[in-house]
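Retro notes, structure queue

What went well: the backlog is down to a handful. What didn't: a couple of records were mislabeled last round, so from now on we paste the full input next to the output in the thread. Example, using Mog1p/PsbP-like protein from Schizophyllum amplum:
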Amino acid sequence: MTSAVRDLFGGAITARAPTTLIDASDLRQVPDTQEVFLYPDSSASIIVEVLQRVERTYFDDAIRFHFNSLAHDNDAQASTVTNVSVIPNDRAGDQTPSTIILSGVQSVAKFNRATLDEVRVLMALYRVESKGIDLVVTFNVPTSTSEDSGAVKSEQWMVIESDFKTFVTSLQIVDFGLFA
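Corresponding output:
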């Protein structure tokens, strides 16, 4: 799949992403604090969100807070964190914070259905301490749905997982004035 550097928030942030992604703002209203992209061949989505920094000292606690907030917002019946790690930013001259990565699963009842959808969540957190900001990137990947429409198959999952790694390791905050 072809990828290219994409401007986010008017170019204040850049990241490498698949060229086939659909910008959700072309389809519906998206808050100014978010960038939302949709995969054209599934219900998988990417959300980049500028949030107020949470008062958690340890990186593990901070990203788990955001994951649990997402589970709450999604009315998840169950949620499990499977892994948390850190990818240091070792790019010379780049002030983008190191990336805290989380993978997990949430069981969510979509559209008031009785059957739960399984959604794999890949999340990255960039803590911009000097600005009091947490920049959160979330890939929501439904792997089983009650109607099996839009569910990501195993071969698609591997591609999306690779897209996530490329996106979060290439993400660069170009203009910290975005967080003023």
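Agreed that this is the format going forward. Reviewer comment attached to the example: Helices lie at 59-73, 154-170.
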